[in-house]
Model the fold of this input.
Amino acid sequence: MHEADGSAGGASDPVDLVVAVEHTDEVVRMLRDFEVGDADVERSSALGLSLVRVPAADAAAARFSAEVAEQVGTRLAGSGHGEPTHLDRLLTGLRVGFAATYNGWAPTMGKNRLLGGVVGGGKISHGGALAPAASDRQLAVREARPGRGVRVGVLDTAIRAHPWLAGGWVAAPGDVRPDGDAPAAAGHATFVAGLVLQEAPGCVVAARQVLADDGSADSWSVAREIVAHGQDGLDVLNLSLFCHTEDGEAPLVLARAIDRLPSETVVVAAAGNYGKEGTLDGPDRPAWPAALDGVIAVGATDDAGKTAPFSPAGVPWVDALAPGVNRVSTYLDGTVTFDKGDPLRFEGLASWSGTSFAAASVSGAIAARTVPGRVSARRAWEMMREESERPAVVRLRS
Done:
């Protein structure tokens, strides 16, 4: 396992660093100076970054010189983000060491953040209003338009071959889940795809699995898939997933992945489910990748148009609002288990709440206004934004 934000980690737990690929060897050499053992390195030329797994961050920190240790302590004490982890100390020590050696210069480095937020904040959660419920409401028959010829990418859990979605999606065999019993989060991609197609019934959803059945992933894995999926000729990329960080800073690897997407691809992301409840992460803490520049961050409203209690409100990084309470869409067929409560039987449809689903509907609304060769997805979003004050209030077909 890798050390996530907010976790001190065990004494021998490995930790993951994200490093600029061209300076990976320099970082590995400095780690060797700390005598922590050989680091495993995975390079990604597409991201321009490497994943460096350090065997024991606590052992590295213990070998800091007295001068470096003092500077690390001073920097972390002034950060205001609670008890530093072994990874915090190691990362800060590396930056101090490089700056001292190279007259203030240090390579680009960051953490491999944990994403576990397709439903809850920071960690997957199916409590309260954010648990899916079975629904017997029928969905309208899909039309050929709008959205014909538009491709909407969905990075999420595996997708189910739902009858209502037939002809509206593509995925590699390994990204398709079979029918049968599953945890609630395993139906997330299927639900998202249904919402996209309710708004843009003529589009094609290109689905890729990046989240496990419990909705979790790490930022390195998500970033690699973002870049890879960006090569698929997408008009819109929907990211109904998010994470918070202990220091409030954007995960380096996610920011790099978004920057490397084609300029014509519009990225839509969920603003997070945590709202005003004073959660562990704090109310309205920025959610990533939604809060990145160039990403359309979507919050949720209820049926009356008011911001949903679980959705961030009054923050400048939220770009759009759309219905996200008790939405009905395609789902699993079988017995579904929850973190809390008894298993329930579903028959292909569910009612669910969350900013994930507001984001999916906005992705569909953009796709519905996109006309390949005439109106780009970016222009479609600009027209939607011009119709409303910021944040844009998106009106849906469904």
Observations:
- Residues 86-101 form the longest helix (16 residues).
